[in-house]
Write a structure and sequence with these properties.
By secondary structure, the protein is mostly helical. The chain is built from one helix and no strands. The chain is rod-shaped, with a radius of gyration of 50 Å.
Length: about 120
């Protein structure tokens, strides 16, 4: 009988050992799952960082375009001012040429009248 009790106890110990082995396997699988989840979380963080980088790049591109547009507008304004200044100078020169021509005609007239 004692042998039976010992045998039953050993059988239960073997079952408990098998159950513990299964628990260890499940625990190991859970640890692996946790590691995989950590890796996925790291990947998500990296993707968020990349998305932020893309957004920063897009913002910089927009700022660069705005700056280029401002520079173009400034250059065009300078050209318009230069053209306006040039037109004013041209009108002034034409006026001076007309005045010189009138003076020349008057001098010729005075010279002819004086000679006669």
């Amino acid at each position: 009988m004692e042998a039976e009790v010992v045998g039953d106890a050993l059988g239960e110990i073997a079952l408990d050992r098998d159950a513990l082995a299964e628990i260890v396997l499940v625990r190991d699988a859970l640890e692996d799952t946790v590691l995989e989840m950590d890796a996925l979380e790291d990947t998500v963080l990296e993707m968020d960082a990349l998305e932020d980088t893309v957004l920063d790049r897009d913002a910089l591109a927009e700022i660069a375009q705005e700056n280029a547009e401002e520079e173009i507008a400034k250059t065009l304004a300078e050209i318009v001012l230069a053209l306006a200044s040039s037109a004013d100078l041209r009108l002034e020169l034409e006026s001076q040429v007309k005045f010189s021509h009138q003076v020349k005609v008057q001098l010729k007239t005075k010279i002819r009248n004086g000679i006669k």
